[in-house]
Design goal:
With 213 residues, this protein is α/β, with parallel strands linked by helices. 43% of the residues lie in helices and 12% in strands. The structure holds 6-O-phosphono-beta-D-glucopyranose and magnesium ion (MG). The site of magnesium ion has 9 residues, from loops.
């Protein structure tokens, strides 16, 4: 088999929480006098909370004091936690569970690779924690995407060489992180294509023939 492990991004690949991040940024930004534009979403995907805020401030050309930044970050996460409170299995992306089960049946190791500090909480809310051999996320790494640490940490725990890992991503920062980790990447999107990913897929099941080839 071409790959021995698959590392999945969480927000936007396993579960629809990418839209919750955007909603929380939008509402908190407005509260801080920032006119959030929906087209910024792609630029923020995968960046950690602080980096996302810094990018947002740059895009909106807004200056905030150190104290205001602290409040902004706190407020964004507060809103995000409110939004995910009611999460359950119903919000898992279509085909995800079946695809992961099929991989595991064939001896492929599986991990999550997410910058989010809330990743464990989300996995437990949607009941998928047991489907992964390891969860690499915001609480056990120092640098988020586009740095490669989140994926290299997963590979090290799975004991699989990076060249035998396939990353599944829906954000450009994540594709960059996979490139930097020397891992192949399948970019999952119905609307866009990534020139930096080895594969562009529209549905998650499409990774099965890639992994088993
Ligand atoms: C990533 C999201 O998975 O997690 C980003 O794509 C988000 O949008 C990042 O900023 C950090 O999330 P959290 O939950 O730690 O604020
Ligand atoms: Mg994502």
């Amino acid at each position: 088999m071409k790959y021995e492990a698959v590392i999945f991004d969480l927000d936007g690949v396993i579960v629809i929480t990418d839209s919750y991040h955007q909603k929380a940024w939008k509402i908190s930004a407005l509260e801080f006098g920032i006119d959030y534009k929906d087209e910024w979403e792609e630029e923020l995907k995968g960046l950690d909370r602080r980096e996302s805020m810094e990018r947002l401030l740059k895009l909106s050309e807004k200056l905030l004091s150190k104290e205001e930044k602290k409040k902004f970050l706190h407020r964004k996460n507060e809103l995000y936690l409110e939004l995910i409170e009611g999460l359950n299995e119903a919000v898992v992306m279509r085909g995800v569970k079946e695809t992961i089960i099929e991989l595991r049946k064939n001896g492929i190791k599986t991990a999550v690779g997410s910058t989010s500090k809330n990743a464990m909480r989300i996995l437990s809310l949607i009941g998928l924690t047991d489907l992964f051999d390891y969860v690499s996320y915001g609480e056990n790494i120092k640098k988020g995407k586009p740095e490669p640490e989140v994926f290299l940490n997963a590979a090290a725990h799975l004991k699989v060489s990076p060249s035998k890992c396939l990353v599944v991503e829906d954000g450009e920062a994540g594709v960059k992180a996979a490139n930097r980790a020397h891992m192949d990447c399948a970019y999952l999107s119905k609307k866009r294509r990534s020139p930096y990913a080895q594969y562009n897929i529209e549905i998650i099941e499409a990774i099965l023939p890639i992994v088993f080839s």
